[in-house]
Amino acid sequence: MTYEPIWGSIIAWYLFLAGLGAGAFATSAFLSWRHPEAVTMRKIGHLIAPIAVGIGLVLLMVDAEAGFANPQRFFLLLGNFGSVMSWGVVFLSVFMVVALAALVLDFLKRPVPGWLENAGAVLALCVAVYTGALLGVCQTFPLWNNALLPILFLVSALSTGAASVLATSIIRHGEEFNRVGVLKKFHFCLPIIELLLVMSLLFITQSNSEAGWASVMALVSGKYALAFWLGLVFVGLVGPTILEVWLLFFSAKEFEESRLAHWLSFLSDAGVMVGGFLLRYLIVVAALPLPVAVPLF
Amino acid sequence: MTRYGMLIDTTNCIGCFACRTACQRQNGLAANIDYIRYEDRETGTFPNVGFEVIPIQCMHCEDAPCVSVCPTGASYIDETGTVRVDEQKCIGCKYCMAACPYLVRVHNPETGAVEKCKFCAAESFEGRGETCSCVEACVTGCRIFGDLDDPDSDLNKAIAERNALPIAGDRTKAKIFYVR
After folding, report:
1. Residues with Cβ within 8 Å of residue A15, at least 6 apart in sequence
2. What DSSP state is assigned to residue B133?
3. A6 has a chain B CB within 8 A of its CB
4. Are A139 and B37 in contact (CB < 8 Å)?
5. Could you give the ipTM of this predicted complex?
6. Selected residue of A285, A292, A294, A296 to mutate for chain B interface (largest B Cβ count, 10 A)
7. What is the pLDDT of residues A109-141, one digit of tens each?
């Protein structure tokens, strides 16, 4: 039997954008706590969050063809709270309300209250974790059906979200970018943690079943090997780590605050975002099912 | 109570795919959509070899992962234990397809909704109308449909006599029993 992935790049884009938007809001909340003076960057996060999640939700609705053709059916989405997807709808809806409220307050030049920022940050974490749990509860696919996936998606969401805020701020607000050292140091750690989680996921999955082994082999030496090694591991994780280690710890302060260093940092953030998408895409398409009657491989 | 189930004796299956063709006609399916799929393999070692064909369709699980993940309640289990899809509620998110361990749910590109075996054999079993289901179409009589809650049913007798078992053990409390 040949197996075709059930979900494809549309769902991968959705998972990526939902994570990125959630991470961008979490980054804003972090900035309001540790760098209250970085007002523009906080506003950038508030702007990216609803736009990214909004685009993701549109993609999700387009992919759900029967609902797209009959939109009234989307109101049934709260029909089964045994389903991770129903919980996701709740998290996404409330998160969108909070994110839009923060955006409106920014546009009106009114302060975003701390409780709204914190509530949004908690909801952002829920959204990011849910995207992993959504796949995680599918027992058919060993690459998904494990407790690492929600944590991996959470770390990737925070990483891509922070990268989107940092990269956008580099374009026109280099001064402010120079002053958010704590955020940059946190952001620097995330790809390293993510690399550890990806390695753990593959290590454990390859050992738990033939389907798990075949899924991992498709990634590391099969048809997704180029995207995995070059795209995810090098461009998305190792490359940004090397660049940031150099910029944060081994370069002179004058260089670190120069425009060239800014654009190198931009490159690193772009890499993180490419890696974030590829992580979702590869995990969605490389997962192979457990056999039913006859071993598949 | 009625709890419908089926036995499929693959030792008699010749792999003619008549069950799938009948199912497609009965349910008005396009040629590229099927509720029954097949797995096959060579068995034994030379010179005593065989070829096994295993028709696989919705197992109408009592512990149905598709029902538990469906966010809109479109997938449900009816009073006869049959797993069904209310196509008026389905948004086509395909979450059930990802959750189904048997990979037997299909996405209909025309409606955008997800479909699968409806146990239409129940209609003629209950005398509610003429059908040509997989059960009636099978030329070697591999399939027996019946009520698992009726201890005297042909189905239960055959399950006991032929030692039929669900295809994947007790993974989801499946209600299709296989003789292999």
Report:
1. A56, A131, A134, A153, A280, A284
2. -
3. yes
4. no
5. 0.92
6. A292
7. 999 999 999 999 999 999 999 999 999 999 999
